[in-house]
Amino acid sequence: MRIVVLADWEACRYRPKGVFETLEGTEQDFVAGGLRAKGREVVVLPFGEDIPSSIARLRKAQPDVVFNLTASLAMDRRHAHVVAALLDLLGLPYTGSDSSTLMLCLDKALSKLVVRRAGVQTPDFITLGPCYTKPANNLQFPLIVKPRFGESSEFLSRRSVVADREKLTRRADEMFRLCAAPLICEEFVEGRDISVGVLGNEKLLVLPPREFRCDSPSKQTPQFETRRVKHDSKYQAKWRTSYTRARLSDGQKKEIVEISKCAYRALELRDYARLDFRLTANNTFKFLEANAHPDLSPSPHSSVGRMCAWVGIDYSNLLNRIVRMALKRSRNGGASGTGAAAA
């Protein structure tokens, strides 16, 4: 079986004779190595802004399946769904969610509305465009201000949480200068930071929840995952951050499984995803967002990798499982999604 590992252009290195390779230590490198460990023929290809050339490389490779690891197009995450749409047009089986779900999950406002309609609680929110006049006053402060579209921690910092309308206006103006894109301003949920991995389509496996913790006694301890928390090792050491298996009661475990399946199906996610929640002091889970293309690096390099390790899922077997789901969907004419199928 020939598998193309499709990556962002900047995640690959060009070699002579039209050969590309992954950069050492990246998600793409781990995935390609994990697939080769199962005896698969793996071809690494980039998908860049020169779309005709990218398509030509794919056609020449003649893959049985594409392991789609693209997270952007021309370094813009808002266009990542275009790659999935083109794979559909080419008739190539590929892993992960389709273009419509990728677009939906990228929209932090619309995805909340879909999940809320399915019966899962979310924070209340408003959206702001660059030409907003006066924010609505029907929300409870504090609020957290972030880009409506984009990665979960993008542009997040301590200043993202605002305590009153004056600070909201100031932060919104600052954000428009930084990213020139629509914003979502949602009620900041005090509580525990819980993430859940889900695998599957017709039948879903909800992996053990992961909790983000800061064990520093300081009152200035980060309350959520900012970009520095995720990527700055000195910052992590300073605040004693860690990712641990969440300690939940039996009732909480049952509820997180149920609402994770509900959200996953409502968003029509495929093969694998990560869902982020806040658990409040009164034991209420509130959905924050879904990542349709979470990092698939092995443990301890990614959340999904950790969760799989906790239940004894071997890394190469995880990748092989995802490939099998994509091939099954292809044999079924693309109909092997989640929808309202029984868990």
Description of the molecule:
By secondary structure, this protein is an alpha+beta fold. The protein has three domains: 2-94, no CATH class; 124-187, ATP-grasp fold, A domain (Dna Ligase, domain 1, 2-Layer Sandwich), CATH 3.30.1490.20; 192-209 and 246-331, ATP-grasp fold, B domain (D-amino Acid Aminotransferase, Chain A, domain 1). It has eleven helices and 15 strands. Strand 14 and strand 15 form a beta hairpin. Helix 3 runs antiparallel to helix 4 (99-106). The protein starts with a strand and ends in a 12-residue tail after the last helix. The mean pLDDT is 91.
Attribute tags:
single chain, 343 residues, alpha+beta, Dna Ligase, domain 1, D-amino Acid Aminotransferase, Chain A, domain 1, six-stranded antiparallel sheet, four-stranded antiparallel sheet, 11 helices, 15 strands
- Strand proportion, as a percent range, falls in 15-25%
Category by helix and strand content: alpha+beta
Reported by name, the CATH topology of the largest domain is D-amino Acid Aminotransferase, Chain A, domain 1
Distance between the termini: 30 Å
Number of helices: 11
